[in-house]
Design a protein that fits this description.
heterodimer; A: 164 residues; Alpha-Beta Plaits; 2 domains; 6 helices; B: mainly alpha; two-stranded parallel sheet; 2 strands; monoatomic cation transmembrane transporter activity (chain A); Multisubunit potassium/proton antiporter, PhaE subunit (TC 2.A.63.1.1) (chain A); cell membrane (chain A)
Amino acid sequence: MLKRLLPHPLLSVLLLLIWLLLNNTVAMGHVVLGAGLALLIPFLTVGFWPERVCVQRPWVLLKFLAVVLWDIVVANLNVAALILGSTRKLQPAFMLLELDIRSPLGVSLLANTISLTPGTVSCEVSADRRQLLIHALHVTDVEASIREMKQRYEQPLIEVLCEC
Amino acid sequence: MLDAVLAILVLVGAFFTLVGSWGLAKMPDFFMRLHGPTKATTIGVGSVLVASALYFSFNTDGVSLHEVLVTLFLFMTAPVSAHMMAKAALHLRVKQVERTRSAVVESGVVNSYDGTPFRRKE
């Protein structure tokens, strides 16, 4: 019963938070209105969210977020330097990452993270969701770079996301 | 003091956005062009948003946090649009610079475009 009325608790919390941020306030009226919307929207759109996702080990998630934010800053400096430097020295490459993560949400989160961080853009996911094709602006050691991505981003995502 | 911090943040933001656009113009092929605007601009927009949050928090009553949302939406949409453009470019077999190394495919599962970015393992 509760599962039917509240299909995605996390989504509800997120929606309430976004509503309050949108209105830039924590006034009681908006909390009530936001809570109403946060209950109603997941209920009405349940068909679009077939997966139920739970987050376990919140500290791993926080650490992952911190690592990603840090990497984004570093990525920006790196890419800025690469852009300002000589284009001829750049060694672009396509790389294939064998995915260990299985949940569709996990794959899309990983692809998003890879696009946001150092000189890499995810280009394509294979139809069976087992391989991710990535384009790198400048990479010298493809193997090492793939290993780093797997260990830095995929591992924590596997640990954090679980079905429930 | 606050003004100085704000000025620095806005200038840093402007600089990185400029570098991102410069990369878009300068890089030799489509895939490399994608990198400039998707990354060098996140820190650019980011620091402008921090400046905005600081300014409105100090100059109006209450804190201003809806800049966080702009960041969130940016982080959700920028990679997705980059992904879609890259995917479209793969399908259209957009030219790449000669020295681009291709990925090695063993099974040929992803190998659906006659091999432009892929090389079968012999």
